[in-house]
């Protein structure tokens, strides 16, 4: 029972997180570290992992905001729904329909061909 309480109450001595897939100790065996801080300490000769002054909850919020901001849009027709994203030779993002059109015809797909419905092939 004491081991179970140890894992619930454990907190990383470096970044103060309480959740990690694996708890580690530093080289001296005195500090309890999360997996990320433990691996960093091991590979950087015992130095602490830099945190950029953010708490674990602030880091999670920043990560979720950046994921929400990365809405993929076709550079040709501005759609955000497609079964497959493609890229042009210049690295621009294209939906599947526009990418196939460029590959077949050698120029951008006309916007009037855009539909909001993805049709399945009949086999």
What's the gist of this structure?
The chain has 123 residues and is mostly helical. It has helices at 2-9, 35-43, 56-69, 96-105, and strands at 24-25, 32-33, 85-87, 93-95.
Topology:
Elements: H1 2-9, E1 24-25, E2 32-33, H2 35-43, H3 56-69, E3 85-87, E4 93-95, H4 96-105
Antiparallel strand pairs: 1-2, 3-4
Walkthrough of the structure:
By secondary structure, the chain is mainly α. It has four helices and four strands. β1 and β2 form a beta hairpin. The longest helix has 14 residues.
Mean pLDDT: 80
Strand share of the residues? Answer: 5-15%
How many extended strands?
4
Structural class label: mainly alpha
Tally of DSSP helical segments: 4
Helix and strand element order: HEEHHEEH
- Portion of residues within helices: 25-40%
Keywords:
8% strand, two-stranded antiparallel sheet, mainly alpha, single chain, 123 residues, two-stranded antiparallel ribbon, elongated
